[in-house]
Design brief:
Blueprint: E1 15-18, H1 30-37, E2 41-44, H2 47-57, E3 63-66, H3 72-84, E4 89-92, H4 105-114, E5 118-121, H5 126-134, E6 141-145, H6 151-161, E7 167-173, H7 177-187, E8 192-197, E9 205-210, H8 211-217, E10 226-232
Length: 240
């Protein structure tokens, strides 16, 4: 899959992993803007979304290639060839920090294996933004990504999320939240939960309460889009 190091003709280019806004375009950092402005090639989850961001920034003429879950493996060889040839590549996702429950991990791993410099350009991340404003303990937290669908795997996933003494962070489509809360209610009804939706946008909302309390609240919520769900069960609480 990866091009051999002996094919390198000079210093390798740099892979910049660039975080982009999760909603509010004003959250793009000055450094990220400059990196995108001078980019030679941008690997992006959806070229349409990235092109719209670049247009907002007044950037044109940059070559874009798609890099998403179902084509990442076959894109890696050509991107490595570009980097080994001395050209730089930017990696972006549709929103937030690439590789965090988004494509890009395989490319970054392949670059690291080849000794190609990988430089993070930090910025927005829904998981960290939600945690910082949740009011739940932040000294120990675990990011779990998207929950599985199969019941057995889901129960194991939620059991891990409910390990006492730390805050678990997961992403979920809002349409799945009622069912997730129902299942959490059977496992730990008094666990503290925060639902963070529309972060950085006009209708930003953080709902806080126990699983029982939030079950009533989601009945009146528009279940579209995705949210960040945070769960915490104190050390003093024991499983039912």
């Amino acid at each position: 899959m990866a091009a051999p190091l002996t094919s390198r003709r000079g210093p390798a280019g740099v892979l910049h992993v660039v975080a982009t806004p999760i909603g509010n375009l004003g959250d793009l950092t000055l450094r990220a803007t400059e990196i995108l402005r001078t980019a030679q090639l941008i690997a992006c989850e959806d070229t349409r979304r990235t092109r719209a961001l670049l247009a907002h920034l007044g950037i044109s003429g940059v070559r874009l290639v798609s890099l998403f879950e179902h084509n990442e493996e076959r894109r890696i060889a050509s991107l490595l060839e570009t980097l080994l040839g001395g050209s730089g590549v930017c990696l972006v996702s549709d929103a937030g920090t690439p590789t965090i429950s988004d494509p890009g991990y395989r490319l970054v791993s392949a670059c690291a294996a080849q000794g190609i410099p990988v430089v993070p350009i930090p910025g927005p991340c829904a998981a960290v933004a939600a945690l910082s404003a949740s009011g739940l303990p932040t000294d120990r937290f675990l990011f779990l990504g998207f929950p599985p669908h199969r019941k057995g795997r889901l129960d194991a996933f939620l059991a891990e999320a409910l390990e006492p003494g730390r805050t678990a962070i997961l992403y979920a489509p809002l349409r799945r939240v009622p069912a997730l809360l129902e299942r959490l209610a059977t496992l730990a009804p008094d666990a503290r939960v925060v639902i963070a939706r529309e972060l950085t946008k006009v209708h930003e909302e953080l709902l806080r309460g126990t699983v029982r309390e939030l079950l009533d609240g989601v009945e009146h919520m528009t279940l579209k889009g995705e949210c960040t769900l945070l769960v915490h069960r104190g050390k003093e609480e024991s499983p039912p």
